[in-house]
Amino acid sequence: MRAGVVGAGLAGLMAARTLAAAGHDVVVFDKGRSPGGRLATRRVGRARLDHGAQFFTVRDDTFAALVAGWRRDELVYEWCRGFDHDDGYPRYAVRGGMNALAKHLAAGLDVRTQSLVFGIGRGGDGWHIDLDDASRTTVDAVVMTCPLPQTYSLLFASGVQMPEVLWRTDYDRTLALLAVLDGPSAVPAPGGVQGPAHEDPVFQFIGDNQAKGISDVPAVTIHATPAWSAAHWDDPPAATHALLLELARPWFGASNVIEAQHKRWRFATPQSIWPEPCWAPDDLGSIAVAGDAFAGPKVEGAALSGIAAAGALLS
Hints:
Structural class: alpha/beta
Distance between the termini: 13 Å
Number of helices: 9
Radius of gyration: 20 Å
Largest sheet: 5 strands, parallel
Shape: globular
Order of helices and strands: EHEEEHEEHEEEEEHHEEEHEHHEEH
Number of strands: 17
Number of domains: 2
Strand content: 25-35%
CATH superfamily of the largest domain: FAD/NAD(P)-binding domain
């Protein structure tokens, strides 16, 4: 079987690796410059900052087995077991930043970045994947892992009928600030502040990338709450950047900002979760839809969803 995977985030990469391990020919398409999706890490001068997913946890035995292998390979490590208190659950980080995990998973796969999928259609016994450069790839099966509204748009012309509740899934937006400092931040040990414990009406997560162990110099990632992000989404970018810097100032302590950037995540977190780990139409055994809107909006959920989608094609 020749399979095409749309999206080189964690779900897509796990689907591709599962299919390849079963002996199938797989090609992965992604519009980004590198694989990973929200497993995103950015270099700013001497600083390295995770600006999408910040860490991951483990609950499922299948995912635990994967993580155990990554730990043996010294790819991932335990960052902490909670931020304001020890809750017993390890938070894992990736050496070199979260994107290093995506690059590890992409190794040996045919991953074609900067490849924008324009349409997907059915013909004969297979599928064709069309790119915006007018090229076409013919495959026997397809795994879709991009955000659900995009998946619906791509599949519409193919006649695949996704459940309405699925394709109408909306996503929270997140505005992120990346700041490189000339000295220590004010983020308390172990280098992260998350959730309602810190009672911040603007920011839902503040992370010190140096304290986490991925940056050689002080560098802070700050994610605004969904409500604040939605309220300021359409503001002029320069105004948003300046306001984020002003509101984040207390987290910089006595240090000055050397350089700052901001990032917009349009499809940051699905607002509803499909009860199954993937979706595959009953009348077709050659297409499956996966992503973090299925097994849960976390790194673990995306990985398990990709594995499940591959399994749906292999069954």
